[in-house]
Design goal:
The structure is a homodimer of 338-residue chains. With 338 residues, chain A is α/β, with parallel strands linked by helices. Chain A is 44% helix and 17% strand. The first copy, chain A, has a 6-stranded parallel β-sheet with strand order 2-1-3-4-5-11, with helices on both faces. In chain A, strands 7-6-8-9 form a 4-stranded parallel β-sheet. The first copy, chain A, binds a DNA duplex (16 and 16 nucleotides) through helix 2 and helix 4. Chains A, B: Keywords: DNA-binding, Transcription, Transcription regulation.
DNA sequence: CTGAAAGCGCTTACAG
DNA sequence: CTGAAAGCGCTTACAG
């Protein structure tokens, strides 16, 4: 226990008060030194810092936030953690946060449910965060109102196909769908299939689908057959729906998927069934996930910039005026499956 | 704008004070009603709740926490978000939290770096969380000390092969490695290869490796060849290291991977190179990720329970005494690749 | 360059 | 069943 002798006292919680007492200065001086605010004599600073270290003092941010009426918390609401796309956005947010004066993310999940989102945001706002970053434009009226009435910055991430409450950072999913259609038509594909997941709560996948159809219409084409799962997107759903589509009566020579997870499932199904890609059928995804890129035949897809969206969301919330929309773009990845 | 007439006043932030004033009661009464504490006359409650709704009052949790000296925050530190395993743990934590009186997770990333973890935990403790959930047993001395001195509950997740600071929830990675070795030896494999990632900061992968070797030793065997990436685990690293191992001089008939990501990379390499699995070489992973399960040949692996670990961590922190270790177990998944 | 005082928005004994 | 008062641990004008 001798090793513990120079450690902070076991129990007694140490506050600015104790530090001030021990250092023979006022609480305000301790506070100023700790926040590097205002002019401080060098020896005062040294004396105080020594006491701070000796006592193992950790400022209480709850008290600090209450007193200064601002917190360094950023509320983040994402729809799900099971789709790797959102953890990637979180990584970007985390990277953006590292450049700040140690802001902290408070993360919640909305499960693609606007009612749940409303509750979650209510709980978040109670912590008086500096900003709330949420996903997409679909919110309940009450959510929208809470956000408008509060004076926190709001960033709606992923999508820029509508007008933001405050700031939007993302890409145009409609354009991505359109670009997919144009690209595939130009490559000579004519008989289009579509394999999707439950789009009821996935506005962005719906927008991509609409964009795709517009491009096909312009070329005098349409989607000849489709198979849509009742569940969220997953590799398993992609396998199943691909099997269903290919077992149908309408022949297709290219399948556009609602995203890469579904498309990887499509590739797995074709491998199992001895269907050659892209000879028998071509496959095109969306997102540009690493798993698709690493497959023996790299998945043809559109790369979205999830990390960039998260990082930019933080930067924008710190610097941009209300009404800003930032397009993080996308790019077609040729790959080997279409 | 008539629709906005009944909405809360635009600016003036509303506090208990305003609610109390408008409802003709004291602040303490408002506080009691909002927290369902103590006896309250029915009509008082109704009257106050009406005002609360009318004014759109949202309690300030920062003030609440400071006054009551306890927060509903739970600090969570995970090493990374790029390995899907940790988002899965977060999902479990989220599920566990839903059963509580709306506690909120504050999530930070340590990037497998004990120094960074120390800073992150320091920042977290400043928020006086109810508990800190972190990953594994590897911490700096300072981290360990902070955690011990603070009176927050501490859960170390994923691993149970050491003694916890407070509570540990996870599985024995040594046993999992051992079980892998036994299983594969029993199935008749004799020439073992190992493909891994950078294990310097990954104690659990090291423990699995040690367990595997023990099992092999007991059977009079050893690892004949290995290829270890300098980077973190990924499908790409798995492809590359598998190629390297199979190009070496030492023939192997089964490869044990440090985890499923690496193993999936191994499968992809074999597909590209026309190597048949498990005929030419068998493949065995660790984790039981969905992607491995969905492949045309389901990946042989060990299933860990990441979701359960997260969920149990929350439950344990609420109910279990210090010193508790909870084994969430694992199971061998036969699959088709070994 | 430093200190005394008020206050941030709640909660919690304590009294009645 | 309800209220007045003190206090949680900081920060921020204001004075000097």
């Amino acid at each position: 226990m001798t090793a513990k002798q120079r450690l902070p006292d076991r129990k007694s919680k140490v506050t600015v008060r104790e530090v001030a007492l021990r250092a023979n200065v006022s609480e305000s001086t301790v506070s100023r030194i700790l926040r590097n605010k205002g002019p401080i004599a060098d020896d005062t600073r040294e004396k105080v810092m020594e006491v701070v270290r000796a006592m193992g003092y950790v400022p209480n941010r709850i008290a600090g936030s209450l007193a200064s009426l601002n917190s360094n918390l950023v509320g983040v609401i994402i729809p799900s953690l099971s789709n790797i796309v959102f953890p990637e956005v979180l990584q970007g947010i985390h990277a953006g946060l590292e450049a700040t004066d140690n802001m902290q993310a408070v993360i919640s999940i909305s499960n693609y449910d606007v009612e749940l989102e409303e509750n979650v945001i209510r709980g978040l706002l109670a912590w008086k965060p500096a900003a709330v970053l949420t996903t997409g434009f679909e919110h309940s009226d009450a959510t929208r109102r809470m956000l408008e009435l509060s004076d926190v910055r709001v960033v709606e991430m992923m999508d820029i196909d509508s007008d933001p409450i405050d700031i939007a950072v993302g890409m145009s999913h409609r354009s991505a769908g359109y670009a997919t259609g144009r690209h595939l038509v130009e490559k000579g594909w004519r008989r289009f299939g579509y394999v999707g997941h439950n789009l009821d709560n996935d506005r962005r996948a719906r927008l991509r689908f609409e964009g795709l159809r517009s491009a096909l219409f312009e070329a005098g084409l349409d989607i000849a057959a489709r198979a849509v799962a009742g569940s969220a997107s997953s590799v398993g759903a992609g396998k199943q729906m691909t099997a269903q589509l290919l077992d149908g009566d309408t022949p297709v020579d290219v399948i556009v998927y609602s995203n890469d997870d579904m498309a990887v499932g499509g590739v797995f199904h074709c491998q199992s069934a001895g269907i050659s890609i892209p000879g028998d059928v071509a496959v095109f995804g969306f997102n540009g996930l690493d798993i698709g890129f690493q497959m023996p035949q790299p998945l043809s897809t559109i790369r979205s910039n999830r990390f960039l969206i998260g990082k930019t969301a933080i930067e924008a919330m710190l610097t941009e005026p209300a009404g800003t929309k930032i397009d993080t773009g996308f790019e077609i990845f040729e790959g080997g499956t279409a």
